[in-house]
Design a protein that fits this description.
Elements (H helix, E strand, L loop, with lengths): L18 H13 L4 E5 L6 H9 L16 E5 L2 H9 L7 E2 L22 H4 L12 H11 L2 E5 H6 L9 E6 L5 H9 L1 E3 L22 H24 L6 H25 L6 E6 L28 E6 L2 H7 L4 E8 L5 H8 L6 E5 L11 E3 L10 H18 L5 E4 L3 H13 L6 E2 L6 H10 L5 E4 L15 E4 L10 H8 L3 H16 L11 E4 L3 H8 L6 H8 L11 H4 L26 H8 L13
């Protein structure tokens, strides 16, 4: 790596904000011998441009010996982030490769067939005479032979050990704050009717029924299941031609075999630091008890049958070592919300002494990104019935304060979204409200963004990777503190070990990500209204992990003087109270009180554990 090249590799014609200082600090961090550099850069810092400059410091093919790694990888967990890179002319030399399912076959009669189901994967020994023009293989060849290959984190991890995408000199991971959680998700094994094509033929043991350790019993079962999957896969491979369904089954079996082998290998390794957890649901009353596929050697024959199984790793250091850390010499991890360097290093298997942290200051005026306290109580499950109607009425008042401006409400769950939509409709403001379901998320979001109407979008799980610049949204409401689901065994395990700092830090990270959705540039502005009282508890308990720029927002938080509850004003009545301008709070004064007596009393009355227990997601 040549850190001194970082300025020459910066792709923009000029610097803005703190970019030049950030490049200096990143250069110095690598130059002093750090193998890993965290770049904590808030919204608007131009992280993609910084990432391109870092990638440009990689050793070139001409500079490298034949045995040395060269070039760079750029990867991000967010598909939307990769789409943004593809559309940015300044990043045109990031050669993007996506999974096979994103490309269509070009053979006559197969134009609508995804490449992962094309004749080349359906027919044994198929020789494609247009492979050199295939969009997937063309993109793959370009990305593998150019200096910078760009891909999603999922594709990057899946290609670990690939002869095509070998180790490179520099790896840049954008939006890296969730790396540990993404790794846990990718390494989780789901055994059930949706993931095993012949599930109904299996007899699954009740992993808690025997005296043995449930994880040991799961490992034994996984060994036997891998053998069954291998036999099934070999039967498919022996066929001259497969249907698209057969191709999907073959590929799924191959994937499942790898997952099971990895789990057994890691679990049996006494040196592995990974902790494994096993969850099992109760089988339905009419579940099959056939043991044709998995015989008595699996330990299931004599015991009661169990239901679907989920095998989860915690802090999968060995998995990350194989899929990430072995893929490069130097690493840059970029995010606005890597909150605690040492804690993050422990989660992903890095030594904090080998990691440098570069902080990039926020360039957005704090008065353009105000936080407003409109808390109505706690939104935990046991308090929700009482609190949610109050929040719905508050949203009507906020809508009246912004009669001509679009807004987004982060509902956190579909249950909350549906109940809010019903209440707002009952109040008579439903004509200004839009929702989405699980299958139509993107279509509903894009339709709302494209509309010129000042509609309100009730969203679920859109706190990250959403760009609502300018008039796309001038305000937002956080209905519920986005605490991790305590019914998840990984969360419960960590809390049982007293990892409350991790719990509040994870929540703060999501809140900070959400706060950045409606303010995207130094001259942009947008208000964030906090409706769940538990958010204030989170701020108090995670205060030591807040970056200075967000702490400044929290310190300036005030309680707005909203219009009275008048639904007609919320749907655009001309007499509605106008929304506050960026330099004026809703109370009409600048720099309003940051800690009103009302808000202090609420915090002082909260329980030590802030009533965070929540199991409905």
């Amino acid at each position: 790596m040549q850190p001194a090249r970082i300025f020459d590799a910066f792709p923009a014609p000029s610097y803005r904000g703190n970019q030049e200082r950030a490049l200096q600090d990143i250069r110095d961090a690598f130059a002093t011998g750090n193998d890993v550099v965290f770049v904590r850069a808030p919204t608007g810092s131009g992280k993609s441009l910084l990432a391109r400059a870092i990638a440009g410091c990689a050793r070139t093919v001409e500079e490298a010996e034949p045995s040395e790694a060269s070039g760079a990888y750029y990867t991000t967990p967010q598909v939307s982030q990769l789409d943004d890179v593809a559309e940015d002319d300044l990043l045109a030399d990031l050669n993007i490769i996506r999974g096979k399912g994103n490309y269509s076959c070009i053979l006559p009669g197969e134009e609508g067939t995804p490449v992962n189901q094309a004749p080349c994967v359906r027919e044994r020994g198929y020789d494609c005479d247009v492979k050199h023009r295939c969009p997937y293989f063309s993109d793959r060849a370009i990305a593998s032979n150019r200096e910078i290959a760009a891909m999603t984190l999922a594709y990057f991890m899946q290609t670990a050990g690939s002869e095509v995408f070998r180790k490179r000199d520099v790896v840049v991971i954008d939006e890296a704050h969730g790396l540990a959680e993404w790794a846990e998700m990718y390494a989780t094994i789901h055994l059930g009717p949706r993931t095993i094509p012949f599930w109904d033929d299996l007899r699954v043991p009740d992993l808690d029924a025997a005296d043995t350790d449930p994880i040991e019993r799961a490992a034994t079962y996984a060994e036997n299941l891998a053998e069954v999957c291998t036999r099934r896969k070999d039967e498919l491979l022996a066929q001259e031609q497969l249907t698209p369904a057969g191709v999907r089954e073959r590929d799924r079996l191959q994937e499942l075999i790898g997952e099971l082998d990895w789990f057994v290998s890691d679990y049996r390794d006494p040196q592995s630091p990974t902790t494994w957890l096993v969850d099992q649901t109760t089988p339905p009353a009419d579940a099959s008890t056939s043991d044709e596929a998995v015989g008595p050697s699996d330990g299931a024959g004599d015991g009661p049958a169990g239901g679907p199984v989920t095998i989860k790793p915690m802090d999968p250091e060995r998995y990350l070592a194989h899929t990430v850390w072995d893929r490069g010499n130097k690493f840059a991890l970029l995010s606005a919300t890597i909150l605690n360097k040492d804690a993050f290093c422990r989660q992903v298997g890095l030594d904090p002494d080998d990691v440098a942290l570069v902080d990039v200051g926020h360039t957005f005026p704090v008065e353009n990104r105000p936080l407003y306290d409109v808390t109505q109580g706690k939104m935990t499950y046991e308090h929700r019935d009482e609190t949610l109607p109050k929040i719905a009425r508050t949203i009507v008042r906020i809508m009246a304060a912004h009669p001509e401006e679009k807004g987004i409400v982060h509902a956190h769950s579909y249950d909350i979204q549906e109940r809010l939509a019903e209440m707002l409709d009952d109040f008579g403001v439903g004509a200004r409200v839009r929702t989405h379901d699980r299958d139509g998320r993107d279509a509903a979001l894009n339709a709302w963004k494209a509309s010129d109407e000042p509609d309100v979008f009730l969203s679920v799980k859109m706190e990250e990777a959403l760009d609502l610049k300018g008039d796309l949204a001038r305000w937002q409401v956080l209905c519920k503190a986005p605490f991790q689901n305590t019914s998840d065994s990984r969360v419960a395990h960590r809390l049982a070990e007293g990892q409350w700092a991790w719990y509040y830090r994870a929540t703060l990270r999501t809140v900070m990500q959400a706060c950045g959705r409606v303010v995207r540039a130094p001259d942009d502005y947008g208000a964030t209204y906090l409706a769940d009282e538990s958010l204030l508890d989170c701020f108090d308990r995670a205060r030591s992990d807040m970056p200075d720029w967000f702490a400044e927002q929290v310190d300036r938080m005030s309680m707005p003087d909203l219009p009275t509850f008048e639904p007609s004003a919320a749907v655009g009545d001309a007499s509605a109270t106008p929304a506050p301008t960026p330099d004026r709070s809703p109370t009409g004064t600048e720099n309003d009180s940051t800690d009103s007596p009302t808000r202090r009393s609420r915090r002082e009355q909260s329980s030590p554990l802030a009533d965070v227990w929540d199991t409905d997601g």
